[in-house]
Amino acid sequence: MIATLTTHLWQSTFFAFAAGLLTFVFRKNRAQVRYWLWLSASLKFFVPFAVLVGLGSRLENTTTRQIATQITTAPAIAYTMEQFSGSLLPERLPPSVPSANAIRWIPLAIVGLWLCGFLVIALIRLQSWQRIRAAVLTSTPT
Description:
- This protein is an all-alpha fold.
- It contains 6 helices and no strands.
- Helix 1 (2-25) runs antiparallel to helix 2 and helix 1 crosses helix 6.
- It starts with a helix and ends with a helix.
């Protein structure tokens, strides 16, 4: 679950960064172009790529299965296997390879870092909004 969430967060963050760069590139175009760029980035946060991949695997029809079966049952190239005596792996792993338990904290750290960045940006936006609100409240109609 954490790995899926981490993957979704970094993909969405990358997508938002790409949308920001494209918005900068298209800054002299109409506002409608920039609107659609940011809308697509926002939709990416709601629809993870993993859901789209899962949906695509469910939509597989029988004709593609038949073609795949024909391809795999009739190989175009014949090959021979030879017996190999000897070990391809070393007797034991080198000491520099971390254990699986040592790597489990990395996805949590990535999610935590992303969450901190999100909170900082949200607080900056809130502060800007409060300044604008204060300016509007103290203004007088002309």
